[in-house]
Amino acid sequence: MSKIEVKNVEGKAAGEVELSDSVFGITPNIPVMHQVVVAYEASMRQGTHSTKNRSSVSGGGAKPYRQKGTGRARQGTIRAPQWVGGGVVFGPTPRSHAKRVNNKEKKLAMRSALSGKLADSELILVDELYFKEPKTKLAVAALKALGIEGKRVTIVVADDDVITYLAFRNLPKVSIIAASEANTRNLVDNGALVMSTAVAKQLEEVLA
């Protein structure tokens, strides 16, 4: 177990919390992290790209000219690939780009991401992310107090924390996700990762 400093939303020290080394203190496995991120981004692709081959293009039912005697190469249809307006050879067709990743690899990648953020001093733990009102100015003040104003920030909140979500959602360079939505790509795609101690314990319990 490692002791990690905890701050409050005013940027002041609020104590320490013990987190498991098996989740926040491992050596990051970069190849597995890359594999999981590639699979995540591939699954986000719609895969609706499509082209028409020679059988799908309209027209071209008759030979454009007779077989012999013209001095030109024989042609059977004006919708062949070599003709302007003809079909496409080996063009893209609708398909799924999804890649399968084992659940153990997904968890290892998330543990690697959290450990890497902690090792790089980019993981900020706060005792409680709570605002009385969903005011953006309160969120801006919190980021400034934590010393991460202007950075690309990912904030992980509890699934039912609507007020914090509303406070941060309109800020540029800030993405806010629920703890149940956390994945490797969201955890590493930032300059600072912020979460409460309760959320950190929740992730620790899931990934242990």
Report a brief summary of the structure:
This protein is α/β, with parallel strands linked by helices and 208 residues long. The chain is built from 7 helices and 6 strands; from the N terminus they run E-E-H-H-H-E-H-E-H-E-H-E-H. It folds into 2 domains: 2-46 and 98-207, Ribosomal protein L4/L1 (Ribosomal Protein L4, Chain: A, 3-Layer(aba) Sandwich); 48-94, no CATH class.
Please provide a written account of the structure.
It comes from Olsenella uli (strain ATCC 49627 / DSM 7084 / CCUG 31166 / CIP 109912 / JCM 12494 / LMG 11480 / NCIMB 702895 / VPI D76D-27C) (Lactobacillus uli). This is Large ribosomal subunit protein uL4. This protein folds into two domains: 2-46 and 98-207, Ribosomal protein L4/L1 (Ribosomal Protein L4, Chain: A, 3-Layer(aba) Sandwich), CATH 3.40.1370.10; 48-94, no CATH class. 33% of the residues lie in helices and 15% in strands. It has helices spanning 21-24, 30-43, 103-119, 136-145, 162-168, 184-188, 197-207; strands spanning 2-7, 13-19, 123-126, 153-157, 174-178, 192-196. It has a six-stranded mixed sheet, sandwiched between helices. Helix 2 (30-43) packs across helix 3 (103-119) and helix 4 (136-145) crosses helix 5. The longest helix has 17 residues, at 103-119. The protein is elongated. The model has no long low-confidence stretch (mean pLDDT 92).
